[in-house]
Amino acid sequence: MDVQANDKNYARSRLRSAFPIAEWLPHYTVSWLRPDFVAGLTLAAYAIPVSLAYASLAGVPPQAGLYCYLVGGIAYAVFGTSRQVAIGPTSAISILIGSALGVMSLGDLGRQSELAMAVAVLTGLIGIIAWFFHLGNIANFVSETVLSGFKVGAGLVIASTQLPKLFGIATGGNNFFTRLLDIFRHLGETNLPTLAVGLGALLLLILGDRFLPGRPVSLFVVVAAILMMSFFPLAERGVKTVGVIPAGLPKLSWPLVHWNELDDLLGLALACFLLSYVESISVVRTFALKHRYAINVDQELLALGAANLVAGVGQGFPVAGGMSQSAVNEKAGARTPLALVFASVSICAVLLFLTGLMRNLPQPVLAAVVLFAVGGLVRPREIRLLYRTDRMEFRIALVAMLGVLLFGILKGVLLAAIFSILLLLKHASHPRIAELKRLPNTGRFVDCSRYPEAYAVPQVLVLRVESGVFYFNAQNVRSYITSQIANRVEIKLVVVDLSTSANVDLAGARMLLELEEYLRHAGISLKLAETHGDVRDVLHAQGLEERIEGVEQRSDVEALIESWRVSTVSRLKP
């Protein structure tokens, strides 16, 4: 009965934690209503032009970007733990969808929209499954170094896709370099009115960001561009527009894809999930730290999964918590996720009553909005800092950047993830091993690289393995220890301090057994110091207590050295 009661209590607790809105909404105060309302309107003003631009990046109908903000924000408000994060399409995910699905859809806009919906649904399901298994720390496997390189590469790729729209030319190219080369070849075909409109919009966005920070400048630019197209015959001069945007709310439906296509879409969904969660959780942590409140990384998996799931069934495409839209929401004064609900209501009003006004929105203006938005991704200063501080980290960032430029966003994302894991394994497989020496007038043994006054005990080598000892690093640990005694003929005792080794697996235990045998044949004793209880259990199961002192009970370095001295003296007595 107690077990059943505990299971029921756990289920209730898990259910309550799955809906953070039930925690903060009952405590909502009237004083928060105005800042949340203003933040919601400001976010909607920012999201409308940006979502239209990102939809063009994804190769889907322009209204799909609005649908993402409409339904994704409401889902996050119910399940999310951040008070300022705004959910919607981002530049990197949009270009990832556009480039990866372009081949599958064969240029069919409706087909690409269905495939993008399917990817969003799969991304959402992956997020929910990851939440169920408590995989919130998965973002830690992608290092900031790789992300720095990836962001620069993604920003450059996105910019290369928008330059043709800015110049009013048609170009091709499979990657960044071939696309850039094709743009130079067709520069002579530039449509000057298109270029003038695009550059003018870009200049206004830059000036607005500098002199009117926190204001919805992009919305003002879009409204001005629509008015200009309405009163001047620029369409007759070759300036292309977005065209008709259907009025009304999205119809909720499952994407129409074949089962055999899901296999191809699953890899893309995994990449979208990884990119979406890594980007979102970094934003979530940033604002939680700034405003001093707690977040739940596992719950963010559910929130992001739910947002992507409803975006998929709501005729949208994958979404994330982007820094730019979240910064707009935070600067406008958002106090709770209710700001996202107000933004969704505002976008709902636009879809119902104002879509007819947007048919004259020039494409070069959308290109300018995208170029301005991705400017935050291209930060050469971060790469230069890595070059000055750590050449290895710099090389990894460079590989991630070149992977995106050469192979595209999808393969670049996967390459970035692989490099992150390889970097982690590299560090884990070659743990730091410190040589310990005794501090004068004490019995303490310390890292001699930090305490130059420490001195070595004659005939004794003390080493501390500063990690667990597992199958992937055990032989490297052994090789390091044997290399340290290779040229020290005076060494008669090796003490391995395991105080910082919380875990040792079967391979690690066998390595210690092999090391003891190797040292014994060389006339050297091996002892283990500061072994944790769990480690002693593993070593005991392998029978090491009969061969190595320090396995049966926890002993410090000084005690083991004294024990060795006593046994040595007793052997030398006639």
Structure description:
62% of the residues lie in helices and 5% in strands. It is mainly alpha-helical and 574 residues long. Helix 3 (33-58) packs across helix 4, helix 4 runs antiparallel to helix 12 (297-313) and helix 16 (380-389) runs antiparallel to helix 17 (391-407). The longest helix has 33 residues, at 259-291.
Main attributes?
single chain; 574 residues; mainly alpha; five-stranded mixed β-sheet; two-stranded antiparallel ribbon; 7 strands; elongated
Give the % helix. 55-70%
What shape does the CA trace take? elongated
Based on DSSP secondary structure assignment, what is the total number of beta strands? 7
Query: Mind summarizing the main beta sheet?
Result: 5 strands, mixed
- Beta-strand fraction estimate: 5-15%
Summarize the structure.
The chain has 574 residues and is mainly alpha-helical. It has 22 helices and 7 strands. The termini are far apart.
